[in-house]
Amino acid sequence: MKWGVLVGLALALLFYPFIFTGPFYWDIGVTFLLAAISASAWNIVGGYAGQVSVGHSMFFGIGAYVPLLFYQLWRLPPVLGAPAAIAVALLLAAAIGMPTFRLRGHYFSMATIAIAELIRIFVGTWDLVGAAIGLQGPAVGRAWWDLTFRSELPYYYIFLGVLVVVLGTTFAVTRSRFGFYLRAIKADERAARSLGVPVRAMKLKALMLSGFFTSIAGSLYSIKTGFIDPESGNIKTLKVYPAIAASNASETNVALAQGGGLA
Amino acid sequence: MLLLQVIVGGLLLGAIYALFSSGLTLIWGMMNFINFAHGEFVMLGMYVALLVVIWLGGGPAAFGFAAAFALFMLGIAVYLSLIRHVMRGPMLAQILSTFGLALLLRYTAFWIFSANFVSLPQSALSGTLNVAGILMPVPQLVAGLAAIVLTIALHLLLTCTTVGSQLLAVAEDRSAAMLMGIRPDRMQALAWGLAAASAGIAGALMAMSYPWSPSVGETFGLTAFVVVTLGGFGSVPGALYAGLIIGLIQALSAYLLGPIYKDIVVYALFAALLWLRPQGLMGKA
Asked: Which CATH number characterizes residue B148's domain?
């Protein structure tokens, strides 16, 4: 990747709110960043490891629900729920990955869609989490720690910061032994195994890392929007898939995943 | 008595599950390719039935045939325009291509037909049969029996005819089949046509008894996955048994636990199957 392009992109993102001012453009920017975060997170397991998940909406949904649940039940600031959401997402990723990664081929994809759908229906009938009505966050921020701002601008920079972390992690992964393992698994799982790559453990690790960041994306979404219901979580992540398809069509790399977020 | 009634209803619906799932299992077994748009084919079959009834009139035979024909053509078109090009690509391309196709079909249906639930206007079939105290609505009975007959017909087509042998030969070994003078492309197009037709006709049969909207495809698609996984990939008889079992489980869990739990039970069963017995009841490992 050309360093010039990267620096140009970083500068463009950093100064975007000042070039295009006004709530409308800022909201587009925030939506773009959220899509880029989700796509980059998905990319870790779907792009590098080649394990196609079609149920990442479950991680997004957990990330979105738990913070608002913290507010609903105990009136705590939603952001405190984000770490709990991450913990739940990691447990779920382990629960899905441990059995299905024994198998090759389509099994993992099918398990993700089945469990995502299972969770969606279940949440839609569970009164504690608002059933089909959904959950609401604080309407007016009580203090800065509620992260409820009238302007889009703070969200833009919070999301940008998270995106930098996600992309930085992805970049670190590509340089690490872990990253090489993942690409080896994608290229030929059997060959990778024969060369001593711990295939199952690596796939599981990739899924957990991906679920970790997708959960954060969900938390950002619900803290900003102040509302989540079973359908909106589902649709937000669905919208990201075409972007992912575009980004993965040629070469799996960090910048494309980000550009795909534009769609 | 009520329990028996529930069981009969579940089996009749399960027969239709078996019919559209046998199409999915055909593609799967033949090409090791998953079609995420299969449920959308069922949904389109329902709308074809609706259009035929509104524009041309006619009974279940007419719109059933129309739905089968329209979806057969669509299946072939999908194969030629999309599947053929991604078939040997990476798995990511395979999955996302049919996933994208599903979204395209679903939202096109939303666009054309709107999101409202519709149902067939009073069709030629109505009335209820009373067999020893068990009430069976005639449309459901006809649909269920027709679905079983068609599923068995598909199985016989695959096992007892020359075309069926050619299809299975391509599934077994593409290049060996080519050396025997079979054109794999043509056979695979035929498989996609048959698979889509089975989904379309199942949709048309179901349209007689149930209202629907463009979003039903998602549920049917997932149901088909469950049935195919339970029955074993590529096994049409497996799909038949599994379809009946899933219909039964759905009806019983709706009756015993409550209607909202029927899908939860089925998807949980699916997840459990993937973990415990991924090759299904009748599949080869």
From this structure: 1.10.3470
